[in-house]
């Protein structure tokens, strides 16, 4: 259910991002194509021998002006905390440096599996010099060349050997999994406590009593929910406090395990770039999303404040135009009673199935109202539409020429679907496939 996480660590310039890009390949588009979301090389998806995994380039985390050794130590710590397997990259042309030894020591002390990649081994003769790297104490060095794409297969074979066993899903399929994400101090823990403290909420177990009890299952009005990784919210280390980017990494796993993501924003601070990035991951992962503006009590308000705040959010989160916004206060409990009903509603929308005949009638009407685009004398023809998946609702349009399905027309079709059916809170995916 949750994908394993692989982290790449190593000194600057050893080739981490080159290797990251090789492994992620075309999937690097994860957040780049999204309007309003900045490019980020931190995180991507990989696949090897049918095993999917998430991959983090710890070198993508900027740490300001910290000295090299401290930066490396922090990056290694993140890798140790977040990853199931660590790829440690060294430079085969330069040999072992003091910084390499330092990182090796840290990795060695952790109980995480580490695979050692010796990069820039561009030709086979160089493989003779590998034995030096045994002295790092990490095990067999794997010669690779990021720029030529050599040796990566053997390296990845070794990486996936160390993946944890796939775990069964502990919750039944009707349980709604909620991830609360947002930067430190926006009020996530306070919201959790306030929500769980609500009347008629039955918490099934006390989190944090065992190491593995990271989730908090509860029942409200007969619906089962689980708050994902609530322990992670409390267990923020120094690293997470100091470096905002790290809190993103923590969120990613929670997003993947969830159905509904509550993006918590601090009303006092307004929006910052990081909020957008995290929300972008949730969107990209196809999760239902609700924007929760917390600490609304602390904002000085007049009759336009809410509308202005909402407009600002809409402008900043263009890709989340479907997400409902709730203005709440964990402190005064203002409007908190709306959170779970909204979670339930967007979860239902996330699962919505449109009957095929209704779908096709709607699309044919839409096409009649706004004719399909043409290119070089050729017109897009939509022959048939079918919904192939839920969570999120995913539609395949069978057309004469998929390239003729322009973004703007696809947006039009999506809007028609949204006007007609209840898709609030859920992304919709649309694919065009060739079929005459
Ligand atoms: P990072 O700082 O560790 O992310 O390193 P980069 O991926 O940015 O690479 C640093 C430099 O090494 C770049 O100029 C790359 O083109 C180069 N490089 C990366 N991989 C290889 C390789 O396998 N062989 C050679 N010769 N150069 C490489
Ligand atoms: P987290 O780091 O996101 O889990 O945030 P916390 O729940 O630890 O809250 C951070 C700080 O914000 C604490 O001092 C809380 O008391 C305060 N806080 C949380 N929610 C609210 C709220 O709705 N209104 C106000 N005024 N303060 C809040």
From TrEMBL:
<dbReference type="GO" id="GO:0005525">
    <property type="term" value="F:GTP binding"/>
</dbReference>
<dbReference type="InterPro" id="IPR027417">
    <property type="entry name" value="P-loop_NTPase"/>
</dbReference>
<feature type="domain" description="EngA-type G">
    <location>
        <begin position="176"/>
        <end position="351"/>
    </location>
</feature>
<dbReference type="InterPro" id="IPR006073">
    <property type="entry name" value="GTP-bd"/>
</dbReference>
<keyword id="KW-0378">Hydrolase</keyword>
<feature type="binding site">
    <location>
        <begin position="119"/>
        <end position="122"/>
    </location>
    <ligand>
        <name>GTP 1</name>
    </ligand>
</feature>
<dbReference type="InterPro" id="IPR031166">
    <property type="entry name" value="G_ENGA"/>
</dbReference>
<comment type="function">
    <text>GTPase that plays an essential role in the late steps of ribosome biogenesis.</text>
</comment>
<feature type="domain" description="EngA-type G">
    <location>
        <begin position="4"/>
        <end position="167"/>
    </location>
</feature>
<keyword id="KW-0342">GTP-binding</keyword>
<feature type="binding site">
    <location>
        <begin position="57"/>
        <end position="61"/>
    </location>
    <ligand>
        <name>GTP 1</name>
    </ligand>
</feature>
<feature type="binding site">
    <location>
        <begin position="229"/>
        <end position="233"/>
    </location>
    <ligand>
        <name>GTP 2</name>
    </ligand>
</feature>
<dbReference type="GO" id="GO:0043022">
    <property type="term" value="F:ribosome binding"/>
</dbReference>
<dbReference type="GO" id="GO:0016787">
    <property type="term" value="F:hydrolase activity"/>
</dbReference>
<dbReference type="InterPro" id="IPR005225">
    <property type="entry name" value="Small_GTP-bd"/>
</dbReference>
<comment type="similarity">
    <text>Belongs to the TRAFAC class TrmE-Era-EngA-EngB-Septin-like GTPase superfamily. EngA (Der) GTPase family.</text>
</comment>
<keyword id="KW-0547">Nucleotide-binding</keyword>
<dbReference type="Pfam" id="PF14714">
    <property type="entry name" value="KH_dom-like"/>
</dbReference>
<comment type="subunit">
    <text>Associates with the 50S ribosomal subunit.</text>
</comment>
<dbReference type="InterPro" id="IPR015946">
    <property type="entry name" value="KH_dom-like_a/b"/>
</dbReference>
<feature type="binding site">
    <location>
        <begin position="182"/>
        <end position="189"/>
    </location>
    <ligand>
        <name>GTP 2</name>
    </ligand>
</feature>
<feature type="binding site">
    <location>
        <begin position="10"/>
        <end position="17"/>
    </location>
    <ligand>
        <name>GTP 1</name>
    </ligand>
</feature>
<protein>
    <recommendedName>
        <fullName>GTPase Der</fullName>
    </recommendedName>
</protein>
<dbReference type="Pfam" id="PF01926">
    <property type="entry name" value="MMR_HSR1"/>
</dbReference>
<dbReference type="InterPro" id="IPR016484">
    <property type="entry name" value="GTPase_Der"/>
</dbReference>
<keyword id="KW-0677">Repeat</keyword>
<dbReference type="GO" id="GO:0042254">
    <property type="term" value="P:ribosome biogenesis"/>
</dbReference>
<keyword id="KW-0690">Ribosome biogenesis</keyword>
<feature type="binding site">
    <location>
        <begin position="294"/>
        <end position="297"/>
    </location>
    <ligand>
        <name>GTP 2</name>
    </ligand>
</feature>
<dbReference type="InterPro" id="IPR032859">
    <property type="entry name" value="KH_dom-like"/>
</dbReference>
């Amino acid at each position: 259910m949750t994908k394993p996480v692989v982290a790449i660590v190593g000194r600057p310039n050893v080739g981490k991002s080159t290797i990251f890009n090789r492994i992620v390949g075309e999937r690097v588009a994860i957040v780049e194509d999204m309007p309003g979301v900045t490019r980020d090389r931190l995180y991507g998806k990989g696949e090897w021998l049918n095993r999917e995994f998430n991959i983090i380039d710890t070198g993508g985390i900027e740490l300001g002006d910290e000295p090299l050794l401290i930066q490396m130590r922090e990056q290694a710590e993140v890798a140790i905390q977040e990853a199931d397997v660590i790829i440690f990259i060294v430079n085969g042309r330069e040999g072992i440096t003091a910084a390499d030894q330092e990182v090796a020591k840290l990795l060695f002390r952790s109980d995480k599996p580490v695979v050692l990649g010796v990069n820039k081994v561009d030709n086979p003769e160089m493989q003779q010099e590998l034995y030096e790297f045994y002295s790092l104490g990490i095990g067999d060095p794997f010669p690779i060349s990021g720029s030529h794409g050599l040796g990566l297969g053997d390296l990845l074979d070794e990486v996936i050997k160390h993946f944890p066993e796939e775990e069964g899903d502990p919750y039944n399929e009707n349980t709604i999994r909620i991830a609360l994400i947002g930067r430190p101090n926006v009020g996530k823990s306070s919201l959790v406590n306030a929500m769980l403290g609500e009347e008629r909420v039955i918490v099934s177990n006390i989190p944090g009593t065992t190491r593995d009890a990271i989730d908090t299952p509860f029942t409200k009005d007969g619906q089962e929910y689980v708050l994902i990784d609530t322990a992670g919210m409390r267990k923020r280390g120094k690293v997470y406090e100091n470096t905002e980017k790290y809190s993103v990494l923590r969120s990613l796993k929670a997003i993947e395990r969830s159905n509904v993501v509550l993006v918590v924003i601090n009303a006092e601070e307004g929006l910052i770039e990081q909020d957008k990035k995290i929300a972008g991951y949730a969107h990209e992962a196809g999760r239902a999303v609700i924007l929760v503006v917390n600490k609304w009590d602390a904002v000085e308000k007049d009759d336009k404040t809410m509308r202005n705040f909402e407009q600002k959010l809409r402008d900043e989160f263009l890709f989340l135009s479907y997400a409902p916004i709730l203005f709440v206060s964990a402190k005064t409990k203002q409007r908190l009673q709306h959170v779970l009903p909204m979670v339930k509603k967007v979860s239902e929308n996330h699962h919505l199935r449109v009957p095929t005949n209704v779908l096709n009638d709607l699309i044919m009407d839409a096409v009649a109202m706004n004719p399909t685009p043409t290119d070089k004398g050729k017109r897009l023809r939509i022959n048939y539409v079918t919904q192939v998946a839920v969570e999120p609702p995913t539609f395949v349009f069978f057309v004469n020429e998929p390239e003729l399905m322009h973004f703007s027309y696809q947006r039009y079709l999506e809007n028609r679907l949204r006007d007609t059916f209840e898709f609030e809170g859920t992304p919709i995916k649309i694919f065009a496939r060739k079929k005459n």
